[in-house]
Amino acid sequence: MKELLLIVSIAGSRVALPAAAVESVVELESLIPVPRAPNHLAGLSALRSRVLTVIDCQRSLELGSTNLNDGKLHEAAVVEMDGHHYALTVDAVEDVVEALSDPAPIRAAMGDGWERVSKGMVETEEGPLLLVDIVALVAGPGAEARAA
Amino acid sequence: MDDLIADFVAECREMLEALGGEIVAWEANPDDRARLDSIFRFVHTVKGNCGFFDFPRLEALSHAAEDALADCRTGRRAPDATLVSAVLAIIDRIGEMIAAIDAGEELPEGDDSSLIDALAPGAEGAAAQAATPAAMEAGLKGTSTPRTIRLSVELLDRVMSGVSDMVLARNELARRLREAPGEVEVDGAFERLSGIIAEMRDAITRTRMQRIENLFVALPRMVRDLSAELGKQVLVDIDGGDVELDREMIEMIRDPLTHIIRNAVDHGIELPAERMKSGKREIGLLSVSARQSGNQILIEIADDGKGIEASKLVDKAVANGVIERDAAQKMTRGEQLALIFEAGLSTAQSVTAISGRGVGMDVVRSNVERIGGVVEVDSTPGKGTRMILRVPLTLTIIPALTVSIGTQHFAIPRSAIEEIVRANGSSVTLEKIGGAGVATIRGRRVPEVALADILGLPSSMEDNERTLVVLRPAGGDVYALAVDRIHDHEELVVKPAAPAVMATGLYAGTTLADDGSPILLFDPAGLAQVGGVRLEAVERGGRGVESAVPVNSNDVPVLLFRGLDGARRALRLGVVDRIEEVVASEAIRPSAGQLRVQLGEAILPLAGVENVDEFEGKVRVFRLNDGEHEIGYAFREVIDLMNIDREVIPAEIPGAISGVTLIDGEPAELIDAHWLFAEHLGAIVRPQTQLVCRLPEGDAWMQNMLRPIVEAAGYLVIGENDELSADVTIVSQGKDIEPDEGGRILRLATDPDAADGEDSVYRYDRAGLLMALKTSSAGKR
Which residues form the CheW-like domain (chain A) (predicted)? Predict the structure, then answer.
């Protein structure tokens, strides 16, 4: 069986997240900001009795920012990494599709932010999509600089 | 020895049970490496233990099986069906023997050579049949039901987190109930539920607790081996093994503790000859002790060795580029010693096999800090070194104070909070010195930082409207944190935050508030660091200032406040230790004859309360101190800090008010602190001229019935042969006894008619008895 992908749109682009890594899709209500935290870390939110660390994907990709405190509900994909739960804010969650191919390198030049989180291109019934590396998305723009 | 055998049997049984399935699976697939490994582990364990216990048959069997399996593991031999059966036969035989040991029987006589031979490559599969009856026999014998069961820590953790969630749900429910006051029955039922949950949480927390003895028990042996290897003599003194600690915590401190002890033996304690030369006993002393202090466990490791030379550490640190030369000169001794925890430092002359490779103490510190603990070092060259590990009692539930900046709430661990003062309070002044904030709280200078500045959050509040939370990070010195508002004390279930959040260094974790919204828990030491507070240096300066506050002055500084009944009162500032705020319904209750208030860990008599119904919600309490004892004084609000310059009109009768004076143009009652202490501590503090009463020791009636009355009347009770001279000697009517010098004799009559009401009293005439005791004491005074 081929890998299932969750199609979401981030900063106006349709991209794919590995569906197996996504625990659920939630609507974020209010956020508690974390002072002094990295810019892309939008804050904390609660899901039942769990604390979610909210990652603003737009800021993580350096493609703008999401206004999360405008009183509207924002969709987010919940993923787990090393025992911590993260909510990745997305513009919209669209569909779950089957991957028709393994990720293949994209040879055209991508935008800076996308380059960093790219795991390659996958073919789906809806055409080729960028497969996003969730770890890189959570780590945010500063991660490479810090590691270096 | 019996305990050890019981442990051995229990362990084997457990492994046998677990092996049950493995054996079958291995039989089906002899090439399965994982199964092979677990069976190997079993025979290996049995072999290891047998040698210790002198069970030669078991040892021979397990040894043979181990050899054969080891061959399979290294690939020298391929496991086939014959080998599998032979190994299984041996395992069955082992099970049978263990059953016999458990039942306390002698090991049955028998020959295992056929089983062992069957292991040899190419042997016949005859042994398999031999095993069957043995296995059945073992099964039939049965054993008594075990009194304990083993659970996986994972399961306990699941229960624990379930209970944590339950606490959160309860908090949420409590909030809803407060918002919409419902029926009394609902509240009652909720109270009961709440109580049960609290009890359950305690119980489940305790299941995770383990005596620290488990950690300590291996130490003497370790130290013995180490000191033998190094040619030293070390005596280990272990104390406090019954202190209980979260089992996970025990595992986490095992390595740091081992490391510190290794260091102490290797570098701390000198060789016997050296010790003799410096006038010490040949045998070095290493003491390891554990005790509980609040919600922390303190583990102290002290040796009487050569100590750490701070200057050497500094030189080394400078040489290794850990610190700059000029920075080193500004360091305090405490900071210099703390260099031992920097990476790449070791003062040992030579690298030994035991320690001294320069890795270690930094790992110790980071391991301890990872679990929210602190390690401190104190050392006197030539005298010895003391290391203290402070670790939290549990990993998960922390009592905390919630505060806010603007609209956002945060939590501060209560263990770090020393006191809370209002920035505009009378005993506090705020100054900016070269841009740095300094708060002077009752003459003590402490560095002050505004939380809003540290966090970079907007706050419209003026500096002097804020509240100062005086924090003492574990092991560090105090600083004041200015927050906008103080909210509530809560028990928070703390969970680690995401790495990116922790990386800021400000937070110790996240938690959920009553209303379900996330709250960040601060790390007080991290806050200070980010806020740029140098913890040690400033406090030193502060101490100097404190002693410079004039003590003897004509103006008497008093604290003007409004009592619970609304009256303007004044209290001499010198007796007020600090001001605390408590929730009346929780902390204040009548007990042992008077109203008492709980402040932190102390329970103090509470004055200033006319009517218990005056309390609502929170009450502020002065903590009064006479140098030895403390009492609390409840009040409504502080008005100001003033000086008394007018005449005091003394009160006519002695009481809580010593007089009235004009302060700031209005009359105020002056509290008589002496009277307060005399009144509220009367029962605690014995009068200096203690009255003594001699009672016959052998008389059960006197000891059981009379003694409490005599003691309640203020007498010290002694026996017939005690040397003290008694003011009163009580004897039964008809017994002759010499009175002590200056004392009197009181005879107790069993017959009312025999009593004359003076020197002899009917023994159930309580009033008469008390009167007689009182006249004696009056005579004395």
Answer: 2-143
DSSP assignment string, B648-679: PEE-SS-SSEEEEEEETTEEEEEE-HHHHHHH
Which residues in chain B have Cβ-Cβ distances shorter than 8 Å to A33? 408
* Burial state string for B170-201 with b = 16 or more CB within 10 A and e = fewer than 16: bbbeeeeeeeeeeeeeeeeebeeeeeebeeeb
Does the structural domain B2-141 have CATH classification 1.20.120.160? yes
Query: Residue B316 is encoded by which pair of tokens?
Result: 């080394």
Write the single-letter amino acid at B706: L
Instruction: Indicate yes or no: CB of B500 within 8 angstroms of CB of A82.
Output: no
Per CATH, domain B213-392 is 3.30.70.260:
no
Instruction: Flag if B408 and A36 touch (Cβ within 8 Å).
Output: no
| CATH classification number, B398-543, choose in 2.40.50.630, 3.40.50.1950, 2.160.10.10, 2.30.30.40 | 2.30.30.40
Of the partner residues B168, B501, B511, the one whose CB lies closest to the CB of residue A53? B501
CATH code for position A134: 2.40.50.180
Work out the pLDDT band at B584, boundaries 50, 70, 90.
confident
Contact A32 B520 (CB under 8 A): yes
CB B298 within 8 A of CB B212: no
Q: How far is B517 from chain A (nearest CA, A)?
A: 6
From chain B, the residues in CB contact with A139 under 8 A are 500
Q: Give me the sheet containing B760-762, strands edge to edge.
A: B715-718, B691-694, B728-732, B744-749, B760-762
Q: What is the pLDDT along chain A (148 residues), one digit of tens a residue?
A: 578 899 999 888 889 999 888 988 888 877 888 988 888 888 898 876 678 899 998 888 888 887 777 767 788 999 988 778 899 998 888 888 888 888 888 888 877 788 888 888 888 888 888 999 898 888 888 655 444 3
* Inter-chain CB proximity B504 and A36 less than 8 Å: yes
CB contact under 8 A, B512 and A37: no
To the nearest whole Å, the CA of B153 is away from the closest chain A CA by: 17
A10 assigned to some structural domain: yes
**Cβ separation B520–A82 shorter than 8 A:** no
Domain count for chain A, please give it.
1
Range of the domain at A21: 4-143
**What CATH class is the domain B691-780?**
alpha beta
* pLDDT for residue A78: 92
ipTM of the complex: 0.86
> Distance, in angstroms, between A34 CA and closest chain B CA?
7
* pLDDT classification of B376: cutoffs 50, 70, 90: confident
Q: Span B443-469, mean pLDDT?
A: 84
Q: Which residues of B fall within a CB distance of 8 Å from A30?
A: 517
Query: Tens digits of per-residue pLDDT, B25-35?
Result: 777 777 777 77
Taking an 8 Å cut-off on Cβ atoms, the answer to whether A35 and B455 are in contact is yes
